[in-house]
Design a protein that fits this description.
8 strands, 40% helix, binds zinc ion
């Protein structure tokens, strides 16, 4: 089956945020920050030209059948000035909400690796980004004295629209039912979130970088492929059965999940990630690490007044 994936919109993001904020007003600041970042992504998505030619459908189908993702991100051409513009806008949003971060963010957006050098060599920063060279960004964060989580949050969000603008062109061109892998069929990166689709109840994953969605067996760990119900389980709060966190004792990783059918909503994965922060704390407390992206709010313990401990233990179920 070919997934007929709708593109996300900033209006839907805001609508979904309002839905959760009615019950979780403590998330307002964080959700506003994300809304501003996503609004910048939405603004640039239609403007980006990565000069990337999409392959023939036959070639795409051949790669998928062989289990190879279809896009090599290092072939994407990111226009340096445009990337810097996106990064600067995002850094400005973060600095406005967290003035203490401004000096580090100023050093980031004036960092020389962001520019084409005098001999015309493309920016080292972009090369590292497209190769997902995390060591490089950890090193730069140290050099400019910027929190590593903020560094990753900003650089990856600034890159997302460039990758997604290409990935969108691949959507609907291949049948993903035989894919079943733990990585994105388009860009090869990890998923950020799992969910049960509203329209047909199928379990699917969404890529943390290009937002491509693909179907995936719900009873299998998204990190190591473990499908033993004794060691791959999910936890949820009885008061909120539409949200769960799947934890694996094989690899000690977790991924969060939303049942969009039970909610009967057009969910947005970014919003779901924020609305379920309490599940990150639950999983971490029990010794599991994030299997996909780390929401930067979690590593910063932000906002400070969540989660509220109501003294009730989350319920544990096996997957039988
Ligand atoms: Zn992807
Ligand atoms: Zn696992």
């Amino acid at each position: 089956m070919k997934i007929n994936q709708k593109g996300w919109t900033i209006d839907n993001v805001r609508q979904e945020m309002d839905f959760y904020l009615a019950d979780k007003p403590e998330l307002k600041e964080l959700m506003n920050l994300y809304a501003s970042i996503l609004a910048i992504e939405a603004e640039y998505l239609p403007l980006i030209d990565t000069k990337m030619e999409i392959e023939e459908v036959n070639e795409i189908e051949r790669k998928i059948a062989e289990g190879a993702n279809v896009l090599n991100p290092t072939k994407i051409v990111i226009e340096p000035a445009q990337f810097k513009e996106v990064l600067t806008k995002m850094a400005t949003v973060v600095a406005a909400q967290n003035p203490a971060l401004k000096p580090g963010l100023d050093r980031l957006i004036s960092y020389p690796d962001l520019d084409v050098d005098t001999e015309g060599v493309p920016p080292v920063f972009l090369d590292a980004l497209l190769k997902f060279n995390t060591q490089y960004f950890t090193k730069i964060a140290e050099l400019i004295e910027l929190d590593t989580d903020i560094m990753f949050f900003l650089t990856y969000h600034a890159m997302n629209p460039f990758i997604e603008s290409v990935a969108r062109q691949y959507r609907g061109l291949y049948d993903d039912s035989a894919w079943g892998k733990t990585t994105c069929p388009v860009c090869g990166r990890k998923p950020s979130h799992m969910y049960k689709r509203r329209e047909d109840g199928e379990t699917a994953l969404e890529c943390q970088i290009c937002r491509t969605q693909w179907t995936y067996p719900a009873d299998t760990c998204v990190v190591c492929g473990n499908a033993d119900p004794e060691t791959y389980k999910f936890l949820y709060d009885e008061a909120d059965p539409a949200h769960a966190v799947y934890v694996c004792d094989g690899c000690k990783k977790y991924i969060k999940s939303t049942d969009a059918q039970a909610l009967d909503r057009d969910i947005d994965v970014e919003v779901e990630d924020l609305a379920t922060l309490v599940l990150d704390y639950v999983a971490k407390e029990q010794g599991y690490e994030p299997g996909g992206r780390v929401t930067f709010a979690v590593s910063l313990d932000y906002p400070e007044d969540i989660p509220e401990d109501d003294g009730e233990e989350p319920v544990e179920f096996s997957l039988e």
